Amino acid sequence: AGSKLREVFDKINNLLSGKPVQTEGQTVSVTQHPQGLEFVCYKLAEKFVRHGEGEVSFHHDSAFPIAVVLSGIWELHPRVGDIFLAHLHKKCPYSVPFYPARKEGTSMEEYQRMLGYEVHDSKVEEQDHFLKRMSGMIRLYAAIIQLRWPYGNRQGAHPHGLSYGWRWLAQMLNLEPLADVTAMLLLDFLEVCGNALMKQYGIQFWKTMFFIQKSYIPRIEAVTSSGQMGCLSRLKNFVQKCLRAEEIPLPKGILTPSFWRT
């Protein structure tokens, strides 16, 4: 509910503003320790990324309520936004976007960590689980860049708005595609903020969609084995439908004005 989200936002904002906040039966304040504020900014940013790789990866719609709170907090407390990006880029290098190359002397285990895989006791997480986490984080990022906290002053610009999404898409299409990962990330990104990018960039956006269909999808196909076609087929269908309809559908779960009256 919108009212519940406002409560969550106010509590986080009060804590970061140095006001005492009630939690689990006790009162806490960042002023209780010299590094209190820095610690809270760090842990809060980390938690937002964890929501992306956890909750959002399983429930795509949850990207929007989480993102709108973070967007509002970022506006009022830029430090949280900076640390959030640092955590996000470390956990999901594709959010930069960046495909780390393996350097000489780097162990396979270390390299897999650089690629975003979780490695415990020399065991690497399964590909499906890895893709799900990356998907959740990209969806959260794509939701953040298009949302503003509706109760802010709205005078300034979005702290990390759609221009960053446009840049992400351009940079992504300049990278050599990877099997599995590239098709999934492009589809996630376009499903979540394609509609907002279309409204903002118009003809330039459609030129990009045409480029994806004619030039980039064949390049993804060239590196994709027959057993990895699922995501690529979905991306192809999505791009084809949008170009045919000359419209990108609104993302499922987007927060409508009526949501804030609940």
UniProtKB/TrEMBL annotation:
GO biological process, one term: poly(A)+ mRNA export from nucleus
UniProt cross-references to InterPro entries, sorted A to Z: GLE1, GLE1-like_sf
Subcellular compartments: Cytoplasm; Nucleus, Nuclear pore complex
Main localisation: cytoplasm
Single GO term (MF): phospholipid binding
Function: Required for the export of mRNAs containing poly(A) tails from the nucleus into the cytoplasm. May be involved in the terminal step of the mRNA transport through the nuclear pore complex (NPC).
Protein name: mRNA export factor GLE1
Gene name as annotated: Gle1
